[in-house]
Specification:
Layout (H helix, E strand, L loop, with lengths): L4 E2 L1 E10 L2 E7 L4 E5 L6 H9 L12 H4 L9 E8 L4 E8 L15 E4 L2 E2 L12 E4 L11 H15 L2 H21 L5 H34 L1 H6 L6 E6 L1 H5 L5 H14 L1 H7 L10 E6 L4 E2 L5 H22 L3 E2 L1 E4 L8 H14 L3 E5 L12 E7 L2 E5 L2
Parallel strand pairs: 1-13, 4-15, 4-16, 9-14, 14-15
Antiparallel strand pairs: 2-3, 2-5, 5-6, 6-7, 7-8, 10-11, 11-12, 16-17
Helix pairs in contact: 3-4, 4-5, 5-8, 5-10, 10-11
Length: 391
């Protein structure tokens, strides 16, 4: 398999973001290593990068939480230059602080610009940037609640199909509207019918996108070349525990959509009593098994789970490259060396080099990244400032 080209940021500028008053960072297209003590701002920098693609970033923080304490009026801005499939792009996003008419603590939506042109929302970034990330919070992905795995799956889908984010958001909004209507004693049946029809349309589209990605991950895992691309990391077996995701493989989407619409109609009383919608894609779960051992991921050791997670992200990067003009995504790997033995760490570095990705890696112990000396850019992060370390 040929080596993908690299999607890469070559300049990042932060203003009043987290603990950064102002930062301008110029980097190359290869591997970037950020080391320093806890609390210095390593993860904050990765979070800023993650906001250059659709969604709420790797921490799902509210916009006010992202502004620097003591900054100017609770505002923040992120700008970058990007080498992409078409040409160099200038992308940026900013939040202008609280505005009258918005709920306290929520503020207005963030602004997004691509080559100086205002965009309607962060979804537009999906056509310019593809990213994937691993954070320490994901170390217990296979042990945690289904909602964590579902969000992880949806983030993978968004990397392939950026419109998936808007479909998920639309479904969740419709579901909240339906739940509020069901709380009322006298329900407007016509309005409720309309909401449930729209919910069914979005739900089936969400299920189909998830199913497609899981099938593609499965195909990569079954292909010897795909397994080889993951190097020292295990391949996985995947399934989705969800009615719609199962039905969409057996029947036309229009039939699945109509059945779910009827289910919503028939379950109004039960859902009203529960105070929530009990059936739908918001209840689905991603099931993963350690392929070589054929063991449920939940039963694997911490190190095996971390290795399996890395293997999934590496396979996903290959899938993105295949459908994004041959460009591999940017990878954000926070404390990625934790729980990996020396052989697996070297295996990770080899995979990243072979993939040709721009990968941003953080860690408190610079010694873990010594094999990358001479081939990666190293920066020391201290109190919201970066110092490049040159051999």
């Amino acid at each position: 398999m040929s080596k993908p080209r690299a999607l890469a940021l070559n300049r990042l500028t932060l203003t009043d973001f987290r603990n950064y008053a102002h930062l301008r960072l110029d980097v190359g297209a290869g591997l970037v290593v950020l080391t320093g003590p806890n609390g210095a701002g390593k993860t904050n920098l990765l979070e800023a990068l993650s906001l250059l693609c659709p969604g709420r970033g790797l921490r799902s923080a509210t916009y006010p939480e992202l502004s620097r304490h003591g900054g100017e009026g609770g505002q923040w801005a992120i700008a970058a230059r990007l080498d992409g499939p078409e040409a160099e792009l200038r992308i940026g996003t900013a939040w202008q602080g609280e505005r009258p008419g918005f709920s306290e603590g929520r503020g207005q939506g963030r602004q997004v610009k691509i080559d100086g042109r205002e965009q309607r929302g962060s979804g537009a970034l999906g056509n310019a940037v593809r990213m994937a990330w691993i954070t320490p919070a994901m170390d217990r992905l296979f042990m945690g609640p289904a909602s964590d795995r579902r969000r992880f799956l949806d983030r993978l889908v968004i990397g392939i199909d950026p419109e998936h984010a808007s479909r998920v958001q639309a479904f969740e909004k419709l579901m909240r509207d339906r739940n509020r209507l069901l709380e009322q004693r006298q329900v407007d049946g016509v309005w409720l019918d309309s909401i449930e029809t729209s919910m069914a349309e979005h739900a089936v589209a969400i299920a189909a996108s998830r199913r497609s990605l899981v099938d593609t991950l499965t195909a990569v895992a079954q292909d010897p070349a795909g397994r080889a691309s993951m190097g020292a990391f295990p391949w996985g077996r995947f399934a989705i525990d969800g009615a719609l995701e199962s039905e969409i493989t057996e029947e036309p989407a229009v039939n699945v959509e109509e059945r779910y619409r009827r289910l919503l109609n028939d379950s109004r009383r039960v859902d009203a009593g529960a105070g929530r919608t009990l059936n739908g894609p918001h209840r689905s779960d991603l099931m993963v098994r350690h392929g070589p051992k054929d063991v449920d991921a939940r039963l694997c050791s911490t190190g095996e789970q971390k290795a399996l997670l890395i293997g999934i992200v590496l396979a996903h990067a290959r899938i993105i490259a295949a459908g994004f003009g041959g460009y591999a995504p940017i990878l954000l790997l926070d404390e990625v060396a934790a729980h990996l033995d020396e052989a697996r760490r070297q295996g990770l570095f080899d995979c990243l080099t072979t993939l040709g990705v721009q990968a941003w890696m953080t860690g408190t112990d610079a010694a873990l990244f010594e094999p990358l000396r001479g081939s990666a850019q190293f920066f020391e992060v201290r109190e919201g400032a970066l110092l490049e370390l040159v051999d």
